[in-house]
Design brief:
Layout (H helix, E strand, L loop, with lengths): L16 H5 L2 E4 L3 E2 L41 E2 L4 E3 H4 L11 E5 L18 H16 L15 H30 L2 H25 L5 H14 L1 H17 L5 H25 L2 H5 L2 H36 L11 H19 L1 H14 L1 H6 L12 E4 L2 E2 L5 H16 L4 E9 L13 E7 L11 H11 L5 E2 L2 E2 L1 H10 L6 E6 L3 H16 L4 E6 L5 E8 L1 H6 L4 H13 L1 E8 L2 E7 L9 H5 L2 E3 L5 E3 L4 E8 L4 E3 L2 E10 L4 H15 L7 E6 H31 L2 H8 L1 H16 L5 H34 L6 H13 L2 H19 L6 H43 L3 H12 L1
Antiparallel strand pairs: 1-4, 2-3, 5-8, 6-9, 6-11, 7-10, 8-9, 12-21, 12-22, 13-21, 14-19, 15-16, 17-18, 20-21
Helix pairs in contact: 4-5, 4-6, 4-27, 5-10, 6-10, 6-27, 7-8, 7-10, 7-27, 8-10, 8-22, 8-25, 11-26, 11-28, 12-28, 17-21, 22-23, 22-25, 23-25, 24-25, 24-28, 25-26, 25-28, 26-28, 27-28
Length: about 900
């Protein structure tokens, strides 16, 4: 118009209920309203069920507001008929498939915070808390926001536990250095490597984006003792050289000679410790994500310590280790160790074969406790809270669900250890949560353990709750929130053991699931076993008679459209209210769809204008059908969930497999997989089965590059079975099961074994070299003296390094904080293994070395010299 351009808009948006009520649907020909009741409602979702088992119920259809609909109104000819004249119009919630409840007091509205992958959980939680505080200021006085689960408490507790242990470990290791070296400035050189190496590890962690958590800090915790090993050996060797050459050589030259003597072997031994953790990096899935931060931080810590030991430590030794160095004999601890070891080493070299045979017997005896150790995927990480996940039969109504959820929450809340209880049943209105109303999740937040009843433990508390919640038709399962989320994401099974049965026919699958359920119930250790009733759903089947419908000109689609509108509700439009959109649905009132007979009277309009009762063109029946169909690898599945107590997963599955094999016969085309923690355990075991041997081969090659002797490599590798003796016995005494955490400790132990073996062999070689240079190695007696000197005079660094490693791990063993359960399983084999490894190395290495070098020396002694050969040749000619 004119020089301006205008956009043409038709303003016909529905903005509120009045707009809907005033929608004209036709013009009256005169008379009264023909309808005897409301014919449509705002709503949607699924049919509530004629037996009360569905999701609707009376609350799904509230009474129409007064004056909104007048069934007896008289219409004059030509009078417009509005939607409010023929329908009840009201605002209703969408059909619910979930319920949330708090403390057994009634329903609440619940929500969850979903964190982006890779974000820092603690930072996200703190940000959420700030936003919640902002929201509270703008909410009505009678509306409260209550935090029902806060993971930051677990994170802070676990980090605090590890921080305390790191401090305790550092103090113990520092005391070990000072006590054994008996020289303050020498001790400070060794102690310097601890905070410096840890600081370097933290810098690399920050650069790589590794957060401080149980595993990342745990990697540093298990490495603290070994981090000072290289510095200890360097300092002790410098002490030896200063005692012998002080005054005869330049001070810095003595330090340089001492460092060069042990430096290469230390480098290779620390390289072995680094390489020994390759199997951890090869782990996948849950175990890989859990232990890789530990492997990274331990590797960074050891690499930093190794770097410091060959760069900064020699310089610090040159500056600080000056003046008169106290001899080893002046230290009462060293004197005691030498007096104790003196008769032992003499006995070893006198009865060397008996010592070796006794060690082999000890290795054989160790098989007895090893056969009695159970197996599990991961040790229980006590999160401080409990997740109660019962399952009931499918088809339960939302009304019964609310009643049952409130009942269980009220019972749990009565326990004095419980702070609050938040229960959830079913799912939210999203496509990402497949839970049905028969699946409950109750998060139980507990008070601090200091407020619990005397003698109460988590296991006893769960047992008491389980006893109080024995409800007919409900199968209980007890776990923890984070653990459950991880299990559900990895295997889908929320109990320690699950059985997945796959096959083509759903009825056969359900029958097999019931048989397996009955079989595993007889196995000792079973607390609950539940097989999914996949055919427990309630269905109203409309079998449309195509020929009958065709006679009225109706197609199957025409009939199904009426069924959808009458029963489920059909969304026809949306209201526009600012930035918000709300669906508008039409649906028959409840009294016209609550049983088979009323459904048969639902009218279907035909093309000719006739109204055909649906009962004439369709057969209507109530049947049982699949509530949910699980599928894996394109095959239908049924799952059997089994909760166990007081038994390890490995032993239980072995017994359960025997019971199932005896009582259940799988038809052709059906398969069974044991899942849950067992599946994860088998996956990790299979991975380690070929990665560990490959790593040992790499370690073998590294040691060979250092020693250039297959015999020496074989002797060094004997430290591994020596350490297994103590590791297995210690695990057996503590009652620990074999798990991924224990195997991580075993792998770390293998690296330490190789290091201690390299060092022990180095000391024996140095003594042998010294005796050769002095011309004393001319007989077996001289060889024994050399070995005696190499073993006895070097007992201080051997015991000192072992004491530093064990002292660095002991605080973990007596810890009871959050995260301690996992760290104890890692530390236990290392503690037990280092003890027996050092003892057996001090006993067996000298005996084997004497046999090996004695055999070589006898060959040299028996071999004639060049002059003797010429004399013998001349005499022969004469």
């Amino acid at each position: 118009m004119g020089e301006s351009e205008f956009m043409v808009r038709g303003l016909g948006y529905i903005k509120n209920l009045d707009d809907i009520r005033n929608i004209p649907v036709g013009v009256s020909r005169g008379g009264r309203a023909a309808l005897a009741g409301p014919t449509a409602s705002m709503g949607g979702g699924s049919e509530s069920g004629m037996d009360g088992t569905g999701g609707g119920g009376p609350e799904a259809m509230p009474p129409a507001p007064s004056g909104q609909w007048q069934p007896n109104r008289v219409f004059g000819a030509g009078t417009p008929v509005y939607l409010s004249d023929i329908a009840a119009i009201a605002v209703e919630p969408m059909m619910r498939r979930g319920v949330t409840e708090l403390n057994g007091k009634g329903e609440v509205v619940g929500g969850i915070i979903v964190m982006r992958q890779g974000e820092n959980a603690l930072s996200v939680i703190e940000g959420v808390k700030k936003k919640l505080l902002e929201m509270r200021s703008g909410m009505p006085p009678d509306v409260q926001i209550t935090t029902v689960y806060d993971r930051s408490q677990l994170i802070n507790r676990s980090i605090e536990t590890l921080r305390e242990k790191l401090i305790e470990e550092s103090i113990i290791v520092a005391l070990v250095c000072l006590i054994f070296l008996f020289h303050l400035r020498s001790g400070l050189v060794a102690i310097f490597t601890l905070p410096t190496a840890i600081l370097i590890a933290f810098i690399v962690m920050k650069t790589q984006g590794i957060n401080a958590n149980i595993m990342s800090l745990g990697g540093i915790a298990v490495a603290i003792g070994a981090m000072v090993d290289a510095a200890i050996i360097m300092i002790e060797n410098a002490h030896k050289h200063l005692e012998l050459d002080a005054g005869r050589k330049d001070h810095w030259q003595i330090i340089a000679d001492a460092s060069k003597e042990v430096g290469p072997s230390l480098f290779y031994s620390l390289l072995v410790i680094t390489v020994s953790f390759l199997p951890i990096f090869a782990l996948e899935a849950q175990e890989g994500r859990l232990f890789k931060p530990l492997a990274f931080t331990k590797t960074y810590s050891m690499a930093a310590a190794a770097l410091l030991s060959v760069t900064i430590v020699p310089v610090l030794m040159g500056y600080l280790i000056r003046g008169k160095i106290p001899s080893e004999e002046k230290n009462p601890i060293n004197r005691f160790l030498m007096r104790l070891y003196h008769p032992v080493i003499n006995f070893v070299m006198r009865f060397k074969k008996a010592v070796i045979i006794s060690t082999l017997v000890l290795l054989g005896v160790t098989l007895i406790p090893f056969s009695k150790i159970g197996s599990e995927f991961m040790p229980p990480l006590w999160e401080g809270n409990i997740l109660y996940m019962p399952t009931t039969l499918p088809g339960i109504s939302i009304t019964k669900t609310k009643e049952l959820l409130q009942q269980t929450d009220k019972i749990i809340r009565q326990f004095p250890e419980v702070h609050h209880v938040f229960g959830k049943a079913g799912r939210a209105g999203t496509a990402t949560d497949p839970a049905g109303l028969d699946m409950f999740e109750t998060t139980i937040m507990l008070k601090p353990e200091s407020e619990w009843r005397p003698g109460m433990t988590p296991e006893r508390l769960i047992a008491e709750m389980d006893k109080a919640l024995q409800i007919p038709g409900v199968s209980n399962a007890w776990t923890m929130p984070i653990k459950t989320r991880i299990d559900m994401l990895t295997t889908g099974i929320r109990t320690p053991v699950g059985i997945k049965i796959a096959g083509p026919d759903l009825k056969t699958l359900e029958d097999l699931g019931k048989q397996v359920e009955a079989a595993v119930r007889t196995v000792p250790g079973t607390t609950t076993a539940y097989s999914e009733r996949i055919l427990g759903g309630n269905y109203v089947d409309f079998n449309i008679k195509r020929q009958a419908a065709a006679r009225y000109g109706l197609t199957v689609g025409d009939v199904e459209d009426v069924i959808e509108t009458a029963i489920g509700g059909m969304e026809v439009t949306n209201t526009v209210e600012g930035l918000e959109r709300y669906p508008v649905s039409i649906r028959y009132p409840r009294e016209m769809r609550d049983n088979i007979e009323t459904l048969k009277r639902v009218l279907v309009p035909s093309p000719t204008g006739a109204q055909i009762p649906i009962g004439e063109i369709a057969d209507i029946e109530i049947r049982k059908g699949p509530m949910v169909i699980r599928s894996e690898d394109t095959r239908p599945n049924v799952w059997v969930s089994v909760d166990i107590r007081n038994v390890d997963v490995g032993s239980y599955v072995k017994a359960a497999q025997q019971a199932v094999a005896q009582h259940v016969k799988l038809p052709s085309g059906y398969t069974m997989i044991w899942s849950g923690e067992f599946e994860s355990m088998e996956r990790a075991k299979a991975r380690l089965l070929y990665v560990v041997p490959a790593t040992l081969l790499i370690i073998f090659l590294i040691i060979y590059l250092n020693t250039r002797s297959l015999t020496k490599v074989a002797i060094i590798f004997l430290a591994v079975p020596f350490s297994l003796v103590g590791a297995i016995w210690f695990l057996y005494i503590l009652g620990y099961n074999m798990s991924v955490a224990v195997w991580v400790g075993m792998i770390a132990l293998a690296g330490l074994d190789a290091e201690t073996g390299v060092v022990m062999l180095l000391y024996l070689d140095l003594a042998l070299k010294e005796w050769k240079e002095k011309g004393l190695l001319t007989s077996i007696s001289g060889l024994k003296d050399a070995i005696y000197h190499g073993a006895l005079k070097r007992i201080r660094p051997k015991i000192m390094t072992a004491a530093a490693i064990i002292g660095g791990l002991l605080p973990i063993m007596w810890s009871h904080g959050t995260g301690a359960d996992v760290m104890k399983r890692i530390a236990a084999p290392m503690v037990g293994g280092v003890v027996t490894s050092v003892i057996l190395e001090l006993l067996v290495y000298p005996a084997i070395y004497l046999l090996w070098k004695g055999w070589s020396l006898r060959k040299e002694i028996s071999k004639p010299t060049a002059d003797e050969s010429d004399s013998l040749r001349t005499a022969s000619n004469v």
